[in-house]
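This part of the workshop introduces the protein records we will be handling. Getting from the letters to the tokens is the skill we practise here. An example says more than a description, so a record of this kind follows:
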Amino acid sequence: MSKRKPRRVTAGEMEMLEVLWRHGGVTLSEAHRALDRDIGYTTVQTRLNRLVDKGLARRSTERPARYAASVSQREVSAGQLDLLLKRVSGGSIVPLVAHLVEDRSLSLAEISQLKELIDEAERNASK
């Protein structure tokens, strides 16, 4: 996974990235249709251009231009979670995990996954 500095992604930009991940390369017109709701054509164009400017998408030189995500969904999710952690808990994951564990009913499978993650973190910390 890339260690690029995480960039803030707005809800509209995230929606556009989801279109790019789902459909691969799309033209502006295809992206507009893929959103399947009442949104301005120029709004879609602005969002795509912002993604390109942020380095999160790329635009082809062909006409009509095709847009494609230049980062994975995992990279964007990790970056957004890093920003959230810094903003709400000074970078510590403990308050976030405590909140999620205390305020939600976890399945046995989820508890098992969390234990595996902690075991892996302990192994990595002792290296």
Q: What stands out?
A: Residues 11-73 form a domain with the Arc Repressor Mutant, subunit A fold (CATH 1.10.10.10). The chain has six helices and three strands. The helical segments are 11-23, 28-35, 41-53, 73-89, 94-102, 108-125. Residues 59 and 67 are 5 Å apart (CA to CA).
